[in-house]
Amino acid sequence: IDLADEAKKETLPASRAEGGRWIWVLLACVSAGALVFLSMRRDRPVPVIPENQQADHPAPVPDDRQVHAAYAGSESCRDCHRAAYDKWAESNHRFAERGYREEMDRNAFDPSREITHAMQKSQVKLDAGMRAQVVTLGLDRKLSLYPVVRVIGHDPLRQFLVEAPGGRMQTTELSWDPAKKEWFDVYGKEDRQPGEWGHWTGRGMTWNAMCASCHNTRLRKNYDAASDGYHTTMAEISVGCEACHGPMKDHVAWQTPKPPADQKDPTIRKFTNARFVETCGACHARRGELTGDMVPGASFHDQFSLVVPDASDVYYADGQVRDEDYEYAAFLGSKMHAKGVRCIDCHDPHTGKRLLPGNLLCIRCHSGGGDPPAPVIDPVAHGFHGNGKPSNECTACHMPVTTYMQRHPRHDHGMGIPDPLLTKEFGIPNACNRCHADKDADWALAETARRYGDRMNRPTRERALLFSRARRGDVDARDGLIAFLVGDNAPYWKASACQLLGRWAGDAPVSAVLRAQLKHESPLVRESAVRALEPLAGILGASLRPLLDDPSRNVRVAAAWALKDKLDLSSAAGRELQHMLDSSSDQPSGRMRLGQLAYAR
């Protein structure tokens, strides 16, 4: 918009001039914001926190060398655990990240080829020394040559890492499909440009911040705000044995020489069922980091803040994944999780693959097995699709697939019930129309009504309708959410209800039910209740302050943020909050939170 040209236009009538002044105020704010954004160059980092508001010491994080010294490496497991090691050695975890290997990668770069993607042309090739290179549009908006330093991912796609200033590695948008043996752009038809957050040269594709922790073992991001750079370290490249089992150097030492068979191993750390699931969830979840140091076997809630269905479009209101949400959160909301099912009950922990093919996996329990026995289901009679057809697989209806990064199909682990009524009323997709794309929701609704009748009127439908109305802002949903929180519902869904009630937190009945959730046994619910009550922190401080000493870090940090205007930053919760903010200040959202903290104080 050319403001000079706009200023020359005729004067508005008085009734319109008032609105026009607000437009000029908005334009001025946008212009000022743009100038501030453009001034945030890498050599001029935004101040973290004014000195008079800083804590004396950040939250304690052990020294890298001290931490990594406790790790023995995956090779140390091989001799004693050969069967598990051999499975892992061929898995996607083993190859989650690695150096360039000629036997695995040469066919992607040789012969050299030109790749057209969106409005751009790039090239991949090998140089005279047989080193892989990518020639593509760089930060300077010119075609530049970038040597490949690492490969990230394995099957169904591989991306490539190149070095950048400040200890960074950037993940190229050009990716290789090893099955189809073809190059593609992970952004599809999007034409992202240098300077954008999501371009491959931008912070949205900085490996240190966005990829590294889940593709390596015990990674420390180690962002330095003063230099806007990284000194990232790890115990082992790729997802090794100790990424899940934790540091095992003491275990290896105890095993050498071989101890007597009847002697108990003091180094083994056993997980509870919940901790088994959380260990997988640490990487297979959409979450915010609290520490920048993923500790294998530690409580999920001491390391992360989980994203659950709320008023945003990250999930659909019935809990189906929408954005790149991964598997963990949806699984927490499933009936399978409520019955005690764990990831390793369906997946081999060392290969990551399913334990049994097709419906055999589900029928293990849904033929009367399990404790308590699961409902007996005949897939053919229940699914109406005929035996042996892909559409008759349990997962086709209850775990629909969404493809991410153009080539990565992922099953929704919420294991929900397809419901065309939700599609018709709120635009929530259903598995019937995902396959029968030539039919509309009315057809699917008639078919489900004919085949399943009143069984479609189930609690999951009522919950989805309630949450959909709440997301839309319908005030009549308020009392329904209050009743939902009082009822006997899963913590995952109670956490979602808390966040949806946030818009009505100032109403006395809502405030009361949210304050009651501050004492819920689940840290996920307590954190969501704190976040919903945050706008009232000034008058509800007495209710929130005890949460600064909560057993779970996610709750302590949420309470510290809610009380940030008068928080003692040298307190334990204050140091944890500041550490989280400093660790995430390599991203625009982190910088924004630092500004909010400084403004609040």
Give a summary of the structure in a few sentences:
The chain is 37% helix and 11% strand. The protein is an alpha+beta fold and 601 residues long.
Question: Would you kindly provide a written description of the structure presented here, covering whatever features stand out?
Answer:
With about 600 residues, the protein is α+β, with helices and mostly antiparallel strands. About 35% of the residues lie in helices and about 10% in strands. It has a four-stranded antiparallel β-sheet with strand order 1-6-7-8, with no helix packed on it. The chain is globular. The relative contact order is 0.09.
Characteristics:
single chain; 601 residues; alpha+beta; four-stranded antiparallel beta sheet; 27 helices; 18 strands; 37% helix; 11% strand
Class per helix and strand makeup: alpha+beta
Tell me the major beta sheet: 4 strands, antiparallel
Which geometry do the CA atoms define?
globular
Strand content: 5-15%
Helicity range of the residues? Answer: 25-40%
Output the strand order for the largest sheet: 1-6-7-8
Record the SSE blueprint.
Layout: H1 3-7, H2 14-39, H3 64-68, H4 82-89, E1 97-98, H5 102-109, E2 113-117, E3 120-126, E4 132-137, E5 143-147, E6 150-152, E7 159-164, E8 168-171, E9 174-177, E10 182-185, H6 207-210, H7 212-215, E11 216-217, E12 223-224, E13 229-230, E14 236-237, H8 241-245, H9 249-254, H10 273-281, E15 287-289, E16 304-306, H11 328-332, H12 335-338, H13 360-363, H14 379-383, H15 394-398, E17 401-404, E18 408-411, H16 420-426, H17 431-435, H18 441-452, H19 459-472, H20 477-486, H21 491-501, H22 508-517, H23 523-533, H24 541-544, H25 553-562, H26 572-583, H27 588-600
Antiparallel strand pairs: 1-6, 2-3, 3-4, 4-5, 6-7, 7-8, 9-10, 11-14, 12-13, 15-16, 17-18
Helix pairs in contact: 16-18, 19-20, 20-21, 20-22, 21-23, 22-23, 23-25, 25-26
